[in-house]
Amino acid sequence: MKISILGGGGFLGQRIANRLAREGRLGNVAVTGLVLFDIVPPRPIDGAAFPISCLGGDLVDLPASAIPDDTATVFHLAAVVSAQAEADFELGRRVNLAGTDAVIDRCRRLAQPPRVVFTSSVASFSGGQGARLTDNARQLPANSYGTQKAAAELILADATRRGFLDAVSLRLPTVVIRPGRPNQAASGFFSAILREPLLGLTTNLPVPDDFEVWICSPRRATDWLLHAAAMDTAALGADRSITPPGLSVTVADMLAALEAVRPGASALVGRVPDAAVAQIVGGWPSGFVPSRARALGFSAHEKLAELVQAFIDDDLVATLADRAIIR
Amino acid sequence: MKISILGGGGFLGQRIANRLAREGRLGNVAVTGLVLFDIVPPRPIDGAAFPISCLGGDLVDLPASAIPDDTATVFHLAAVVSAQAEADFELGRRVNLAGTDAVIDRCRRLAQPPRVVFTSSVASFSGGQGARLTDNARQLPANSYGTQKAAAELILADATRRGFLDAVSLRLPTVVIRPGRPNQAASGFFSAILREPLLGLTTNLPVPDDFEVWICSPRRATDWLLHAAAMDTAALGADRSITPPGLSVTVADMLAALEAVRPGASALVGRVPDAAVAQIVGGWPSGFVPSRARALGFSAHEKLAELVQAFIDDDLVATLADRAIIR
């Protein structure tokens, strides 16, 4: 099976590529080739038993080589993130919508309609603090990023109905703890308040301690994306969108988990309210009742303490090196 | 107040233009100019006390003259209809989505964000026979036209939130009785089974007599569109979409109303099942509970017999002439 990862240079794209390289298969099928596509050519992955090509280019002018003719599975993770799409309307529309059109147009030309796993987002919903949305909740986004994700879900479901491809759209929670550096996502601080203290660095918290957020770990997000790529989609019917089983936690819960793992570390978090950031993340629902995903075999979320420990196990050394931090 | 009607050559565009010409005002404000824009220059409207310009062009390459700088209200009715969007995916996407982007981009450049009244559709929902959807029902379209309408609603709501314009999206029921000729809408037969017999012509019914459909009259659709243009939108909040109070009727109800007005006419309707048409219209919900629209002042629907009589009063002579039918 040949696989392409669009946004293959990003955080989740690299995780998926590493898992595929390590395991050599997706579900029960051996991987025979992998393309990583991003704005600049992604880092190659070590240790794979199959060829990997790393391509750079513009998603909207998607080259055929990004999704070769015999591709069976496409991970479409390429996106302009929330704060950036809010700051630059045209850029968000171009990448998040016209980019998705380009993916559909390429998939239509393949001999067999490929599975397309698309990362939609909790930001495609509103409801705010205290919300517990069910699987049939209406998407009424409170930001341009969420709007573009919700529209792309619709368009991918239609492309599936037409037989152009076989889409599964996962509305990912806010992924915590992201390794590396702060990015332009409005939700970036949810990772930073755990990551930066674990690196020995100070960071700012722009919302109150009792702010509740719907999160998932990088490990869980990767598991879900691989499950979405391998699952039998017959059970989905016309509804190609899935809200996977994340975790509703408060900032206070997160800081308590940090303290449990690294006593004293939470003192590095300063309270600096930011109305613009609070306005964006405050519109997202703080919880879901993800019954459908559970029935479809998406794995339950681990506890918060495990999530913090997993960053230490999986990412701390690489993040320290990447950011040239001497300890 | 200056007004533009995109799709001004179409059935509803011409109705709105005629109403504005006759009344001279929209809500409490005098109309000072009207632009009718369509693929080919629309027919001019007689009897207006304000200047009317009729322009032809491509919606996606929208000329600035289609929405002049001091425009206060835009009716965005231009669309590729359901059966056509199903037959030609690229054309539907281009007009129904890229066209809406072009409208937004032009509105952003005006001195004041204009009211934009957009015609969305019952086809943006699924649920089928027996459904009674509430205002918070999720849009899970079963066809490309409905998908494009639902996505355009999302994008217009976001453009409103950003202050580019002030959108009201009306999810119109199937409009019955459309005058003129059969069009490429999959729902066209719902008008034809009343219109053609009233013209003395035979026509085909592609669905069973007990098929239930959510309809509105041209008079009611025009009233609703004008109300959407004049209403105070402060009460809408972030949700810019409204399901107006249509009527759930069966085909048998419609044929009985025809018989009551013109005894014997329903004998001109032949039963010729059409699976492709039935598949499209069978996906649309057959009813709604339009509480929000009622609270927002959208007028209740008249009875079916009045709808049939209104076609005779408003459209029969013109339709006979247009189709060169001698009686």
The percentage helix of chain A is 25-40%
Q: Supply the helix-strand structural class of chain A.
A: alpha/beta
SSE order of chain A, one letter for each helix or strand: EHEEEEEHHEHEEHEEHEEHEHHHH
Query: Could you give the order of strands across the largest sheet of chain A?
Result: 5-4-1-6-7-8-12
What pair of chains forms the biggest interface? A-B, 24 and 24 residues
- What's the quaternary structure here? homodimer
- Per DSSP E runs of 2 or more residues, the count of β-strands of chain A stands at 14
Give the CATH topology of the domain at 2-124 and 134-172 and 218-242 in chain A.
Answer: Rossmann fold
Unreliable stretches of chain A (pLDDT < 50, length at least 5) are none
Number of distinct helices of chain A: 11
SSE layout and pairing:
Two copies of one chain form a homodimer.
Chain A: E1 2-6, H1 11-23, E2 25-26, E3 29-30, E4 33-38, E5 52-56, E6 71-76, H2 82-87, H3 89-108, E7 115-121, H4 144-161, E8 166-172, E9 174-175, H5 188-198, E10 203-205, E11 212-216, H6 218-230, E12 241-242, E13 247-250, H7 251-261, E14 269-271, H8 275-282, H9 291-295, H10 304-314, H11 316-322
Parallel strand pairs in A: 1-4, 1-6, 4-5, 6-7, 7-8, 8-12, 9-11, 10-14
Antiparallel strand pairs in A: 2-3, 11-13
Helix pairs in contact in A: 1-6, 3-4, 5-7, 7-10
